[in-house]
Amino acid sequence: RSRAGDDAGHRRDRNQLGGEETATSFFCHVILQDGHSMAEDTKDTKSSNQMWGGRFASGPSAIMEEINASIGFDKKLYAQDIRGSKAHATMLAHQGIISGEDKDKILHGLDTILSEIEAGQFVFSRKLEDIHMNIEARLADLIGPAAGRLHTARSRNDQVALDFRLWVKEELQKTEAALSGLIAAFLNRAEEHADTVMPGFTHLQTAQPVTFGHHCMAYVEMFGRDRQRVRHAIEHLDESPIGAAALAGTGYPIDRHMTAQALGFREPTRNSIDTVSDRDFALEFLSIASISAVHLSRLAEEIVIWSTPQFGFIRLSDAFSTGSSIMPQKKNPDIAELTRGRSARLIGGVTTMLAALKSLPLSYNRDLAEDKRAAFEAVDGLALVLPAMAGMVATMTVETETMRKAASQGFTLATEVADFLARKGVPFSTAHDITGALVRLCEERDCELHEIDDAALAAIDARLTPDIREHLTLEAALDARMARGGTSPARVGEQIERLSRELARQRAWALDYRGPTP
Q1: What pTM value is reported for the model?
Q2: I need a labelling partner for 390 at 20 to 30 A (CA). Which of 213, 268, 307, 405 fits?
Q3: Is 324 a catalytic residue?
Q4: Catalytic: 203?
Q5: What b/e string do you get for 155-183 counting C-beta neighbours within 10 Å, with b at 16 or more?
């Protein structure tokens, strides 16, 4: 339409809005979420108010439905919701709270719903708010009144706590496996390069020679701590919330240990108020994700630097690089850069969760509906970047000669001179000053430490005897670093052996925490 026609049409729209309810409905039909308008999934569907009893004489306003609906993202929990409902129904029948016939109908109906969802045939309704009510409404369609007995002795509060806890536990197990893959990639490279010399850096300035294997083992330690945090997080959350009900527990004679065992938890939770309001398990997962993201970003930064022509320490595989649309010679470390960028979003996730929890009184509050988005995004992020970085590390080519040449430049052996003097009884501060004078002389003569002549050494200090040259080789410098955790090839080999055993032990531990197959 023309501008005049648009204005007239908009005036007609505004004039047709008779009151607050109509205005709200208009607003919600204009704003599309999840790719559809409110009208698309509300036909012939009960509202959440109709589903949950006689307290409400009418359905919610359109804007209430829009802000209240979480089905757009919590449908991701369908498998956990069905697992929890099956365990709950089985327990109810075992305790004589519902009949065996009702239990069989419920289990069969839930299996049917699971098949429908996995086949893409299930219709999710925003009017039914969330995954729990969508499944229960469909169950009622399938099996009739027996569906209503499934909610006996439970609430949506403990139900969502269960679903989310199950999901976080499963995702922590996947994260643990992905971290193991990255650690294994570094262990393999460390073993290959236990005696490959490279410059070590402080302040991104050349410092002392180290081995590339030693540098790789630094990341094994780093990501190993992340993996240990995952292990602790799984142990912390390994309690079943189902049975806490709304906040006070239930008066039915349920068996919470039975459902806990069926769902692969160590035991039931111990306080019903804490149970329905606790999201520490999600916060802990997001904390782990953010710390891992920082570690991944540090690794990504080094890969970006090392792969530049100015450094040339590594060459990236074509499979983990991209080119330029205009410069044919370019080979860009995009995966490393995207990983570095993704870390910002993962760090933001834990901040979001902390802010959402910081002012909530006990017990359940609707604010907790926002707890899942950050966790879902964190999982999606880690699921991409952890295997991507593992692949990049496993396939990159290490330019050993370039590393060795860089390690021999920049007076990286200066500390060996100071140590040589200190072993002769010279106070280290004095030895430091003498070595500084030697470095200054070498800069003036444009030579390396081992190239300075005997007369010049003696002129600086008589204790700089010719036998110092035995210590001014890269291999001698590495071999001298024999203290625990040092860079000598022998110590690096010990680190590799120890951490390989630890990785195997942790993998065995992880098998103990694989719950029953969904």
Answers
A1: 0.83
A2: 405
A3: yes
A4: yes
A5: bbbbbbbbbbbbbbbbbbbebbebbbbbb
